[in-house]
């Protein structure tokens, strides 16, 4: 019986000692963590940069009292930082919420606005070409690139989105008046696009010259009211030719191009042909009527190489013309 009592007493003592040991270990651990834990009332940080733009270095500085542990989140999906004063570069423009966790107890948020990157361009790398300040609708515009070491070209003349020419020298005929932008891309470099303005004037209207107005004199020798029928003979018809508006070959070319682009009707030429409104003409070495010539060119882009007008002396009437296109 004494042996059983001794065994029970030893077991109770072991359990008590075990509980005491566990309590002391837990208390020691808690005391250690409490002694080393540094609480914070408020996390504070500042930031500075030469410019808040894409690609610029931004410095962040923690100003939290008693801070010993840091966790930075820059809000741009990049890997954060555990440094006290990290440096960071933003790759895109926009607004970013930067967060700082201090000692796993305090947090601070601030929004940083990043502007787009400033690109410094070399003025010597822009395409070089000459452009007149004004031109008339239908007039042929010729341009040529003078850029050194250029191997490819894209010309745009401000009337279409696609490139109008991909050669070093280009030609273009404007169909509508207005201020146009001529642009040139050389060697496929979109950073350096040459741009110039040209004022396209409307086609001037042809004005008929004012002829001298004369008043017929009455023949005082006869009283026409009393004269017998047939006594007064009709005056002979004047041999003076009908004078029509004069048009230069340059303006005639413009009108033909407008005819081809369906912005002018063939009847607009009748004022220059006098009696024969459908004369024979020579087009690309072949004889044809003016009406047939019109049918062939309507809807096509015209590039006129040569034009010779033949007129009647004194009347300006165009009897025929020779055109190569």
UniProtKB/TrEMBL annotation:
<dbReference type="InterPro" id="IPR022409">
    <property type="entry name" value="PKD/Chitinase_dom"/>
</dbReference>
<dbReference type="Pfam" id="PF18911">
    <property type="entry name" value="PKD_4"/>
</dbReference>
<protein>
    <submittedName>
        <fullName>PKD domain-containing protein</fullName>
    </submittedName>
</protein>
<feature type="domain" description="PKD">
    <location>
        <begin position="145"/>
        <end position="187"/>
    </location>
</feature>
<keyword id="KW-1133">Transmembrane helix</keyword>
<dbReference type="InterPro" id="IPR035986">
    <property type="entry name" value="PKD_dom_sf"/>
</dbReference>
<keyword id="KW-0812">Transmembrane</keyword>
<feature type="transmembrane region" description="Helical">
    <location>
        <begin position="15"/>
        <end position="35"/>
    </location>
</feature>
<dbReference type="InterPro" id="IPR000601">
    <property type="entry name" value="PKD_dom"/>
</dbReference>
<feature type="domain" description="PKD">
    <location>
        <begin position="70"/>
        <end position="105"/>
    </location>
</feature>
<dbReference type="InterPro" id="IPR013783">
    <property type="entry name" value="Ig-like_fold"/>
</dbReference>
<keyword id="KW-0472">Membrane</keyword>
């Amino acid at each position: 019986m004494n042996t059983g009592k001794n065994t029970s007493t030893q077991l109770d003592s072991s359990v008590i000692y075990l509980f005491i040991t566990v309590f002391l270990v837990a208390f020691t651990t808690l005391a250690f963590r409490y002694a080393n834990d540094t609480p914070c009332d408020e996390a504070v940080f500042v930031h500075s940069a030469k410019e808040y733009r894409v690609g610029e270095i931004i410095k962040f500085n923690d100003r939290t009292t008693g801070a010993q542990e840091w966790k930075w989140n820059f809000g741009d999906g990049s890997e954060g930082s555990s440094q006290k004063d990290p440096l960071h570069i933003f790759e895109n423009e926009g607004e970013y919420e930067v967060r700082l966790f201090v000692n796993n107890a305090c947090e601070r948020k601030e929004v940083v606005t990043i502007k787009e990157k400033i690109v410094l361009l070399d003025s010597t790398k822009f395409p070089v070409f000459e452009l007149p300040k004004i031109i008339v609708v239908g007039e042929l515009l010729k341009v040529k690139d003078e850029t050194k070491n250029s191997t490819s070209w894209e010309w745009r003349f401000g009337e279409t989105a696609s490139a109008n020419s991909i050669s070093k020298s280009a030609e273009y005929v404007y169909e509508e008046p207005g201020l146009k932008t001529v642009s040139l891309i050389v060697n496929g470099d979109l950073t350096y696009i040459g741009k110039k303005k040209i004022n396209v004037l409307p086609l001037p209207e042809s004005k008929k010259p004012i002829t001298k107005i004369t008043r017929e004199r009455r023949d005082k020798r006869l009283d026409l009211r009393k004269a017998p029928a047939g006594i007064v003979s009709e005056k002979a018809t004047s041999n003076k030719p009908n004078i029509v508006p004069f048009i230069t070959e340059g303006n005639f070319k413009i009108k033909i191009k407008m005819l081809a682009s369906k912005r002018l009707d063939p009847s607009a030429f009748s004022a220059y042909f006098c009696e024969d409104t459908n004369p024979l003409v020579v087009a690309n070495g072949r004889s044809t009527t003016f009406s047939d010539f019109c049918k062939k060119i309507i809807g096509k882009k015209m590039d006129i190489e040569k034009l010779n007008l033949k007129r009647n002396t004194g009347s300006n009437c165009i009897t025929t013309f020779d055109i190569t296109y």
